[in-house]
Amino acid sequence: MLVSQILRSKGDLVFTARPDETVGEVAGLLNTRKVGALVVLDAERVAGIVSERDIVRAVAEGGAEALSRPVSSCMTKDVLYAEPGETVDQLLSRMTDRRIRHLPVCRNERLVGIVSIGDLVKSKISEVEAEADGLKAYIAAS
Protein backbone atom coordinates (compact mmCIF):
# COMPACT_ATOMS: atom_id res chain seq x y z
CA MET A 1 0.00 0.00 0.00
CA LEU A 2 1.17 3.51 -0.81
CA VAL A 3 1.17 6.59 1.42
CA SER A 4 -1.15 8.33 -1.06
CA GLN A 5 -3.75 5.59 -0.46
CA ILE A 6 -3.55 6.11 3.31
CA LEU A 7 -4.01 9.87 2.88
CA ARG A 8 -7.02 9.27 0.61
CA SER A 9 -8.53 7.12 3.33
CA LYS A 10 -7.70 9.19 6.43
CA GLY A 11 -7.63 12.62 4.83
CA ASP A 12 -4.92 15.19 4.37
CA LEU A 13 -5.64 17.46 7.33
CA VAL A 14 -2.41 18.48 9.08
CA PHE A 15 -2.41 20.45 12.31
CA THR A 16 0.35 23.03 12.33
CA ALA A 17 2.03 25.61 14.53
CA ARG A 18 4.20 28.65 13.88
CA PRO A 19 7.83 28.76 15.06
CA ASP A 20 7.10 31.79 17.28
CA GLU A 21 4.23 30.14 19.20
CA THR A 22 5.22 29.28 22.74
CA VAL A 23 5.85 25.76 23.97
CA GLY A 24 2.85 26.21 26.28
CA GLU A 25 0.58 27.24 23.40
CA VAL A 26 1.72 24.28 21.34
CA ALA A 27 1.19 21.91 24.27
CA GLY A 28 -2.37 23.24 24.45
CA LEU A 29 -2.86 22.66 20.71
CA LEU A 30 -1.59 19.07 21.00
CA ASN A 31 -4.10 18.52 23.78
CA THR A 32 -7.13 20.13 22.11
CA ARG A 33 -6.42 18.57 18.71
CA LYS A 34 -5.76 15.18 20.36
CA VAL A 35 -2.63 14.56 18.28
CA GLY A 36 0.91 13.60 19.16
CA ALA A 37 2.75 16.05 16.88
CA LEU A 38 2.36 19.28 14.95
CA VAL A 39 4.19 20.33 11.83
CA VAL A 40 5.83 23.72 12.35
CA LEU A 41 5.37 25.97 9.32
CA ASP A 42 7.25 29.17 8.59
CA ALA A 43 4.92 30.68 5.98
CA GLU A 44 4.43 27.72 3.59
CA ARG A 45 7.78 26.07 4.37
CA VAL A 46 8.14 23.19 6.83
CA ALA A 47 10.47 24.51 9.51
CA GLY A 48 10.23 21.54 11.87
CA ILE A 49 8.04 19.11 13.73
CA VAL A 50 7.22 19.17 17.43
CA SER A 51 5.95 16.18 19.37
CA GLU A 52 4.75 15.51 22.88
CA ARG A 53 8.19 14.04 23.53
CA ASP A 54 9.86 17.34 22.54
CA ILE A 55 7.59 19.27 24.93
CA VAL A 56 8.30 16.89 27.82
CA ARG A 57 12.05 17.12 27.17
CA ALA A 58 11.91 20.95 27.09
CA VAL A 59 10.03 21.13 30.41
CA ALA A 60 12.29 18.52 32.03
CA GLU A 61 15.38 20.51 31.04
CA GLY A 62 14.06 24.06 31.45
CA GLY A 63 11.32 23.79 34.04
CA ALA A 64 8.15 25.86 33.84
CA GLU A 65 10.11 28.65 32.13
CA ALA A 66 10.36 26.44 29.02
CA LEU A 67 6.64 26.89 28.44
CA SER A 68 7.16 30.57 27.58
CA ARG A 69 9.94 29.91 25.04
CA PRO A 70 9.20 29.72 21.31
CA VAL A 71 8.50 26.23 20.05
CA SER A 72 11.39 26.66 17.61
CA SER A 73 13.65 26.19 20.63
CA CYS A 74 12.59 22.56 21.11
CA MET A 75 11.23 21.35 17.78
CA THR A 76 13.04 18.88 15.56
CA LYS A 77 14.52 20.92 12.73
CA ASP A 78 16.00 18.05 10.71
CA VAL A 79 12.66 16.70 9.52
CA LEU A 80 12.34 13.38 7.73
CA TYR A 81 9.62 13.34 5.09
CA ALA A 82 7.52 10.78 3.31
CA GLU A 83 6.49 11.02 -0.31
CA PRO A 84 3.03 9.95 -1.55
CA GLY A 85 4.52 7.19 -3.73
CA GLU A 86 6.39 5.46 -0.90
CA THR A 87 5.15 2.17 0.53
CA VAL A 88 3.99 1.42 4.05
CA ASP A 89 6.90 -1.01 4.46
CA GLN A 90 9.46 1.66 3.50
CA LEU A 91 8.04 4.09 6.05
CA LEU A 92 7.70 1.51 8.82
CA SER A 93 11.37 0.68 8.37
CA ARG A 94 12.44 4.36 8.37
CA MET A 95 10.33 5.21 11.41
CA THR A 96 11.56 2.19 13.36
CA ASP A 97 15.21 2.88 12.53
CA ARG A 98 14.95 6.57 13.50
CA ARG A 99 12.57 5.98 16.44
CA ILE A 100 10.01 8.50 15.24
CA ARG A 101 6.22 8.30 15.21
CA HIS A 102 5.14 10.95 12.69
CA LEU A 103 6.20 11.79 9.13
CA PRO A 104 5.00 14.82 7.20
CA VAL A 105 4.14 13.88 3.62
CA CYS A 106 5.46 16.28 0.97
CA ARG A 107 5.08 16.46 -2.79
CA ASN A 108 7.42 18.83 -4.61
CA GLU A 109 8.48 20.32 -1.24
CA ARG A 110 4.83 21.13 -0.41
CA LEU A 111 3.11 19.67 2.66
CA VAL A 112 0.24 17.39 1.57
CA GLY A 113 -0.43 15.34 4.72
CA ILE A 114 1.02 13.50 7.69
CA VAL A 115 1.17 9.84 8.65
CA SER A 116 1.71 8.32 12.06
CA ILE A 117 3.09 4.94 12.98
CA GLY A 118 -0.47 4.07 14.02
CA ASP A 119 -1.76 4.87 10.51
CA LEU A 120 0.88 2.61 9.01
CA VAL A 121 0.29 -0.27 11.44
CA LYS A 122 -3.48 -0.05 10.86
CA SER A 123 -2.89 -0.20 7.11
CA LYS A 124 -0.52 -3.15 7.43
CA ILE A 125 -2.99 -5.08 9.61
CA SER A 126 -5.78 -4.48 7.07
CA GLU A 127 -3.51 -5.69 4.28
CA VAL A 128 -2.56 -8.88 6.17
CA GLU A 129 -6.21 -9.57 7.10
CA ALA A 130 -7.30 -9.18 3.46
CA GLU A 131 -4.54 -11.56 2.37
CA ALA A 132 -5.57 -14.10 5.04
CA ASP A 133 -9.23 -13.86 3.95
CA GLY A 134 -8.20 -14.43 0.35
CA LEU A 135 -6.18 -17.50 1.31
CA LYS A 136 -9.08 -18.89 3.38
CA ALA A 137 -11.46 -18.38 0.46
CA TYR A 138 -9.02 -20.10 -1.90
CA ILE A 139 -8.58 -23.06 0.45
CA ALA A 140 -12.33 -23.36 0.99
CA ALA A 141 -12.94 -23.38 -2.77
CA SER A 142 -10.35 -26.11 -3.38
Structural write-up:
Helices cover 46% and strands 20% of the residues. The chain has 142 residues and is α+β, with helices and mostly antiparallel strands. It has a single domain (3-141), classed as CBS-domain. The strands form 2 sheets. The protein has a 3-stranded mixed sheet with strand order 1-2-3. The radius of gyration is 18 Å and the shape is elongated. The model has no long low-confidence stretch (mean pLDDT 94).
What pattern of helices and strands is seen along the backbone?
Answer: HEHEEHHEEH
Mean of the pLDDT scores? 94
CATH top level assignment: Alpha Beta
Radius of gyration: 18 Å
Indicate the proportion of strand residues.
15-25%
- Would you identify the regions where 5 or more consecutive residues have pLDDT less than 50? none
Number of domains: 1
